[in-house]
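Appendix B. One record, verbatim.
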Amino acid sequence: MRPRRFVAAACTAGVALSLIPITAQAAPLKEGLQLVVIRESALATHTWFVQTVGGKPVLGSYFARHVDRKTGHVTVDDGRRSVAGLTDVTPSVSVESAEQRTKGERSGTKLAVLPGDSAKLVYEVISDEGQGSVRTLVDAVTGEVVKTESLIKRIDGTGKVFSPNPVASLQNDKLVDSNDADSAVPAEAYKSVTLSDLNGSGRLVGKYAQLLGTKNKLAYSATNTFNYTRNSDFFEQVMAYHAVTEAQKYIQGLGFTDINNEAQDITTIGYNADNSYYEPNKDKITFGTGGVDDAEDAEVVWHELGHAIQDAQVPGFGSSDEGGAIGEGFGDWWALIMSAAVQQDTATTPLACIADWDAISYASGTPKCLRRTDTDTKVADKTGEVHHDGQIWSRALFDIFKQFGRDKSAKIVLEAQFSYAPDTSFAAAAQATVAAARTLYGDADAAVVQAAFSARGIQ
């Protein structure tokens, strides 16, 4: 976690941020800050910058000013990186040569600075070999590949969906997939719903969600009527559109108008694995079709949307191990928050059991779950694997939900996330969440939130 500094309320927008001294290092090149985005939460304005050296962005860096709308008080999150040993930002290797070091379809290449005691000028090349976006860093002087990593960390009509899935709605955990057969799921599992905010194109494209793919593989209706069953690939498209749209409408109803307030890119075709993922560089969610098609379970949709929500609130969120775990834990909890409005909390389908329809393809025991949000996992049980460690965070949020209910707990957590750092720790994110609860609802409720984190060993 980078240092947080409190700045006097007299600070104004006219401060030349590029001239703020950086004491962590003394690079010979001119340093500055470049605006990334300005976000508005219920309590404050949050302005995010990226550090630059010689006009080139420094990878993994950030600088944020959080200005309290009522008091004018300014909090600064300084995530600038040490850049030492770099004397020039002129590449010796061409863009074309750098891109030849990568595979697949390239979607973008830019010069950047890889920070550290021996900083490097690199090309950041984003490409896709069909399994999601990959970032390759190529030394702009030698042409050597420095690092390769996956970036897998988007008019009213009518349609039919599962709400949230057939296991939950039918209270039947004996259902099986049967390779997408309609006969495997009784007709009463389907629910007719309004598909709001469509753009009138006849496609599942609207204010808060849009399905991507080749036209012949996308659902189309001149009357905006999208009534399919699970044997059709169009059914998952309707599921994804509806689940994402309803989540955004819920967020707006809580008073947040600047959290992923856009048409989220989504695809439910072309990826055959039993997996789904969110790509921050594309702002796109991809749902796999292995086992139970992932988008048939709204809780899987809401989990992946959780990553898009956090990325929209904090650019580059989840760059630390604990930050990544928070992302997974929040995604599971967000699925619970959305399901709480449409699902019974029973022994057959506990709210804490996430994705109990998708899980029938791979989970054992009863009930079958992708994960649970009510485990007793604590900081002392950390393994470094983000999905396992995410259960520490989701349990804390689950306890907050049990104390405050759906709307109040969701408002606290969403407000707090605006103030998380991209490389946050459990402790720092917990402190921000306690602070949000205190500001929104007072000391007594803040103490309840603190107790939930303390019970997980987060201090």
